[in-house]
Design a protein that fits this description.
Elements (H helix, E strand, L loop, with lengths): L4 H10 L4 H7 L4 H10 L1 H27 L3 H11 L36
Helix pairs in contact: 1-4, 2-3, 3-4, 4-5
Length: 117
């Protein structure tokens, strides 16, 4: 019999959403765990919540490091989070409300282009 949903969810949370670590814990393949996660909203939610909480914790740590004078972290934060304030090496262009850019094509047609039949 396979691993229960409850056991997978518990291990996903314990491993902070690291699918490879969950697979090792149950002696499963990475793909086997990933397939189970894809089929279960409950497991998807566990992965998302686990990863989100770790990303927030890493963000907090990065802010601390930047404020303590860690220049590479400071530059990274400014380039990513401060890009709307001009801290960027490239310009990103988007449509209204950060949506896609809509490009419309126009074709000029003259009477010379018409088929004379």
């Amino acid at each position: 019999m396979g691993v229960s949903l409850k056991a997978l969810e518990s291990e996903i949370r314990a491993q902070n959403g690291n699918i490879a670590a969950v697979a090792r814990a149950f002696d499963m393949t990475w793909h086997g765990v990933y397939d189970r996660v894809k089929r279960s909203e409950r497991l998807q939610k566990a992965v998302d919540e686990s990863r989100d909480s770790k990303v927030k914790a890493m963000g907090d740590k990065a802010f601390e490091m930047a404020m303590d004078g860690n220049v590479p972290i400071l530059i990274f934060l400014l380039k990513t989070m401060g890009k709307n304030d001009g801290y960027t090496e490239r310009t990103e262009i988007s449509g209204p409300d950060n949506g896609p850019i809509v490009i419309k094509g126009y074709t000029n047609v003259t009477p010379d282009d018409w088929d004379n039949q």
